[in-house]
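Section 3.1: Structural characterization of target chains.
Under the original work plan, the team committed to producing a structural model for every single-chain target entering the pipeline before any wet-lab resources were allocated. The record below documents one such target. The sequence was received from the expression subgroup and is listed exactly as submitted; it comprises 295 residues.
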Amino acid sequence: MPDTQGNSFPALVLMRSLLPQLRRSERAIAQQFLADPAATAKLPIVELARRCGTSTASVVRFCHSLGYQRYKALCMDVLNEAMLESFETANLPEASGDIDRGDTLSDIVAKISTAETLSIADTAKTLNLESLQQAAQAISASERVDIFGVGASAFVAWDFQQKLTRIGRTALSWQDAHSAWTSAATLRPGTVAVAVSHSGATSDTIGYLSLAHASGATTVVLTNHLGSPITEYADVTLTTAARETGFRSGALGSRIAQLMVMDCLFIAVAEIHYDESMAAIRRTYAAIQHLASRA
């Protein structure tokens, strides 16, 4: 881990998280590490700078961005993480790299299953439990929960709304940005607004959360990128650590990681009022079974 600030994120996960905010030269260094962590971590700093078309000063600045004072300390952590990952993926299908034009269906299945498995594992390692508890307590005490996301994140928002409804929480999921903004403007203290955005830079979602924040609602965001624009309006930030491929980026590993975090949040909310939640689940299940038997 970083030898200066004790960041809880593994180095490679932190690189993915900060990638959009890095300078172009630093982004090239991060991409080199992410493409081949073990091999890159063995390179002398001068050689790494040469391969990335940048300077050793940029490499040092990149290390500092991650919380490291020394290049060797970063490389040691990356090597350790790469070794640990090789053990964790030993029983997974052999697959590496992005989805390519010539991949067989078997290759595609192997690559996606590996990426999604690692996305869940990395997210579980780095999910801040204190933030998760704060979000659960806020939702549990709220009179209403509004949830919004765009694109693939909209499906995650809708799934979370359905789960909260099953345990008797008043939850609304908005599919249209203008409707979401209108609703956010009517929120007040004692309500909660949840935003789902993999990039943390989706303008519609940022607008929604900023309105909710201004209205006095407790705001919760789920994003993959620390320090992304949307976190400025979040009282509680939850993060995923998804691994996206270049093909259909933002909807494969991110969605499965988002669903995992939302499942954890839902269970945490349900447990706060366990007996009431279980009773609500039994009632809703019985209602569906009764209507289904009459169909």
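Residues 1-7 have pLDDT under 50 and may be disordered.
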